[in-house]
Write a structure and sequence with these properties.
Length: 248
């Protein structure tokens, strides 16, 4: 594997671990330890962490190193408010320019459950994750309608920085909130060029996340600290061979 491919692969692996908070909030990301665990040299690890720092996915502290970000309620709420401004503008701009939202939903047949139906924990977690990814894909598609690359870049970064709390949100509130998701109605309103209705639905969805952010962050912290400790998990991540892409 070439050095460029190795660096890119290292970045992708670390980004996946960080976005899903496989490291604890505030945890020191030791370059040498990560290099051993991912079976690469320290150079691609350092380059990946520098890039992740520039994307505000990790914190770089001079003379100390890199750290996993803390879950800051105010910062997360600010991100949602910023993303809302961009997405609402994109909806309005697309309607005025008669641009069509190119969005198909592969979960349409599986995202709903029968009234009163209960899912086991594994199914519930899988559904929450799938729905979070669906929402992130929709966010990106809407941002693309703005014809502004910087807006699209900001929304992609928003998706990454809020991915974990988005999954936790759907996990906490469960299938009931997923069933009443605005995704399908929002897409239908955009197809009808009804920007006002689509924006109202977007606003309602974002305000629900902002309003419940304190509870979501509290649960997220429990999962990253208490659950991992009770499960006997160590702070170190599993070793991965970048060359093969498989967990060792």
């Amino acid at each position: 594997m070439s050095e460029n491919l190795r660096t890119a692969a290292t970045y992708d692996v670390l980004k996946g671990l960080i976005v899903n908070f496989q490291f604890r909030p505030g945890e020191h990301l030791q370059i040498n330890d990560l290099a051993d665990q991912l079976q690469v040299s320290v150079t691609p690890i350092r380059e990946a962490l520098l890039r992740l720092s520039s994307e505000s996915l990790v914190v770089s502290v001079p003379n100390r190193g890199f750290f996993c970000k803390n879950l800051d309620i105010g910062e997360l709420q600010d991100l949602y408010n910023l993303a809302y401004l961009i997405l609402s503008y994109s909806i309005k701009n697309a309607t005025e320019a008669s641009r069509t939202l190119d969005f198909t939903n592969p979960l349409h047949a599986t995202a709903h459950t029968a009234p009163g139906q209960e899912l086991d924990l594994g199914s519930r977690e899988a559904l929450a994750c799938s729905h979070a990814l669906l929402v992130e894909r929709l966010n990106t598609k809407i941002a693309q309608l703005s014809n502004n690359r910087e807006f699209e870049k900001i929304v992609r970064n928003f998706n990454e920085r809020t991915h974990y709390v988005r999954v936790i949100y759907y996990s906490i509130y469960g299938v009931r909130h997923i069933n009443t998701s605005t995704v399908f109605d929002l897409v239908e309103n955009m197809e009808r060029k009804d920007a006002k209705a689509a924006t109202r639905l977007l606003h309602r969805a974002f305000q629900a996340k902002i309003h419940n952010m304190g509870e979501v962050v509290k649960e997220a912290l429990v999962r990253t600290y208490v659950d991992r400790t009770s499960a006997g998990l160590q702070e170190n991540v599993p070793a991965r061979n970048i060359a093969t892409g498989g967990w060792a």
